[in-house]
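Input chain follows. Return structure tokens only.
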Amino acid sequence: MADGPTLLVFSGAGLSAESGIPTYRDHDGLWRGINPQTVATRAALVDNPELVREFCNERRAAIGEAQPNAAHRLIARWQQTYPGTRLITQNVDDLLERAGCIDVMHVHGRYTHMRCEGCGLVWEIGYAAVEAGERCPRERCRSRRIRPAIVFFHELAPLYRDMHKALGKLGHGDVLVVIGTTGAVVDIGALARPLRCHKLLVNLNPSEDLDERIFDWVRMAPVCTVLDELDAEVQRLLAERAGIASR
């Protein structure tokens, strides 16, 4: 299978919703009750650092209390079974890693890591609260200009180039699985449309930002309720394409 088809899993907030981590744009999502401009922008970090710090501490604590769900574990099993598996997520939690996944491309960063704007150091803090006045741990720096290692609104996402490159490599024998994203931030529909690979979509609800008609297999349901169907379809497609490639 080392030279077999690629399985690329692209996930959003819906993947972790069944672990108790709220989504952002659904009817009960986080941004329905909080204006993201006040807690998730560079300007907010400068103008009201205490509010941003409190918000990020709450998000970090919620991640620590959550547990990987069956969908995270299925993705980890795919990665262990199929060497050609690639994982890209918009999620800022670590539930994929805690389920056993490795080499996950977090295009929007992770709350469990901090970054120093003075020297660029990135370090893991887990689920601990960041206190006022904390400094960069690098001895020759010790800057107070530290922040969560996530991509705020209106900031460039350095890993988008790698994301585009990985998606662009998918060809006729490969499989793209999209789970739990509205397409409002990363327009995965536009990125997937020209691809010749087989495309699968699982979302809780239809989204005006994501045209499900471009996908070959679609389920509108909580992801953990359709895992058997999804797994069977992925296994079928990869076995079929691996068989074709070996002829």
